[in-house]
């Protein structure tokens, strides 16, 4: 499979949804049980983080193949999980989007914007 871009409709759908189901692909090719995560859109890209940092089980599974499946409303896609370079500017923009979208949940937002969670930031790329 080759990487593609998100369509405008997919980006708009993702932006309006609070939750995404993420199922990383195991080394044997099977998908894990979907886990619910928060996602944000920055420009034409979609980002996710593990609130538990590198200890998060679903995050650890993304390390094995770097691919899986996501679902958010009408968006149902195979994706690649790409690590994000530790750019303070990009991480700050991602943090700002998490705050804008989820600030009604102050405790969880503090966790998802922590250094622990930032270390797991991934860009989702449709396949």
From TrEMBL:
Name the InterPro entries on file. UCP028498 (IPR016888)
Task: Please give the Pfam families that the UniProt record associates with this protein.
Answer: DUF2255
Superkingdom of origin organism:
Bacteria
What is the name attached to this protein's record? DUF2255 family protein
């Amino acid at each position: 499979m080759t990487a593609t871009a998100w369509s405008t409709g997919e980006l708009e759908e993702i932006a309006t949804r609070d939750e995404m189901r993420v199922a990383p692909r195991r080394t044997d090719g099977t998908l894990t049980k979907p886990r619910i995560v928060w996602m944000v859109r920055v420009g034409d890209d979609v980002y996710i983080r593990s609130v538990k940092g590198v200890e998060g089980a679903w995050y650890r599974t993304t390390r094995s193949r770097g691919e899986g499946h996501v679902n958010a409303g009408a968006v149902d896609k195979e994706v690649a999980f790409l690590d994000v370079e530790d750019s303070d500017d990009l991480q700050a923009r991602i943090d700002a989007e998490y705050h804008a979208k989820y600030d009604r949940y102050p405790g969880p937002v503090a966790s998802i914007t922590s250094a622990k969670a930032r270390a797991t930031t991934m860009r989702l790329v449709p396949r």
